[in-house]
Design a protein that fits this description.
This protein has helices at residues 5-27, 74-80, 83-88, 150-157, 168-173, 228-236, 301-314, and strands spanning 38-39, 47-48, 54-57, 62-70, 95-101, 104-115, 118-129, 132-141, 161-162, 177-179, 186-190, 196-199, 212-219, 242-255, 258-269, 275-284, 288-297, 315-317. The chain is an alpha+beta fold. It has a seven-stranded antiparallel beta sheet with strand order 2-3-4-8-7-6-5, with helices on both faces. A seven-stranded antiparallel beta sheet has the order 11-12-13-17-16-15-14, with helices on both faces. Strands 1-9 form a two-stranded antiparallel ribbon. The model is unreliable at 1-27 (pLDDT under 50).
Length: 318
């Protein structure tokens, strides 16, 4: 028995419409903001933000801010986000419910908050998945809650995902400078404040077992030439993970076309006591300076020092 042509067309048309409605729901992939391991399928109207890690809906005056922490941070975070603690911070909790994730769990919290004479609505999601603890803050005016509903946020939070790694292209894209030569080092982490951590070795942790270099931008008044020795020593005093520091060289130098200052020192690891050598270069600009700090175990210094210099000389403004 065959279907009449009219019924066949109607049936196929209905099936096609149903498939078009179903496919997007299954086809939607998580969107990862630039330089973020954490992503999700954002609510309708939200696009990746350019000024922070997360998403924004300009027409609704709403923002979704994403931050990540080590996986072991989740229990303490969950413990501290009580209704009482949030109430003290000004958030009146009206929603608290679990988030079911494919390979983890989370909590969705939301409610109104009044700040600076304005009524706001905020949502919070914390999640543990993929070995990462995620903290998401949704901020909007109370009037925007009609456009960005709890149901929309709930659906988005169910899609929280963690990717294995961030492409180097994304890590580097957020920096106000560029590396012309990484000299065998790799980019471990970068941040929107212009800081970058480079390392030479397989481990993804910042420690002195393998050479690392910290690069950072500081905006502010540039010290006069006669003040730069003290200035450089003060900056160097904040070098992490060192003890028994003995400065062996401190002098001005040229780095490319810019004035700079170099400090070199011998020291010991704060933990373990291994001998290390550290070098700090400051490159001064019109309204700030670039700090480059390298720390290497002493037995590897002769091999690694030329690489640090190559990285230093290859850094340029975008």
């Amino acid at each position: 028995m065959s279907l009449p042509n009219t019924l066949r067309k109607t049936t196929f048309g209905a099936l096609a419409a149903l498939m078009m409605a179903i496919v997007p729901a299954f086809a939607a992939d998580p969107v990862f903001p630039i330089n973020s391991r954490v992503g999700m399928v954002p609510p309708v109207g939200f696009t990746p933000a350019t000024r922070f890690v997360g998403f924004e809906n300009v027409s609704a005056n709403a923002a979704i801010l994403i931050s990540s922490m080590p996986g072991e941070a989740y229990p303490e975070l969950e413990k501290n986000l009580t209704d009482e603690a949030l109430t003290k911070s000004g958030l009146k909790v009206t929603v608290r419910e679990p988030i079911a994730l494919k390979d983890g769990k989370g909590v969705f919290i939301a409610g109104p908050r009044e700040a600076s004479g304005q009524k706001h609505y905020e949502g919070i999601a914390i999640a543990t998945t993929g070995g990462v603890t995620t903290f998401i803050s949704v901020q909007m005016l109370e009037a925007s809650h009609e456009k960005v509903t709890d149901a929309m946020l709930r659906d988005a939070f169910k899609t929280i995902s963690v990717r294995k790694e961030i492409p180097d292209s994304e890590k580097l894209a957020i920096l106000p400078y560029k590396f012309g030569n990484l000299a065998g080092f790799r980019v471990l982490r970068t941040a929107s404040d212009g800081s970058a951590i480079l390392t030479e070795g397989p481990k993804d942790t910042v420690n002195l077992e393998q050479p690392f270099m910290l690069v950072g931008v500081k905006v502010g008044a540039v010290p006069k030439r006669e003040e730069r020795d003290k200035f450089a020593r003060d900056v160097f005093s904040g070098a992490p993970g060192l003890k028994d520091v003995k400065i062996t060289r401190a002098e001005p130098l040229r780095i490319g076309q810019s004035d700079g200052y170099e400090i070199m020192a011998n020291a010991k690891e704060a933990e373990g006591g291994a001998d290390v050598t550290a070098v700090q270069w400051l490159r001064f600009g019109d309204n700030g300076h670039l700090q480059m700090l390298g720390i290497v175990r002493k037995e590897k210094w002769a091999e690694v020092y030329p690489k640090l210099r190559a990285i230093r000389d290859g850094i340029d403004q975008k």
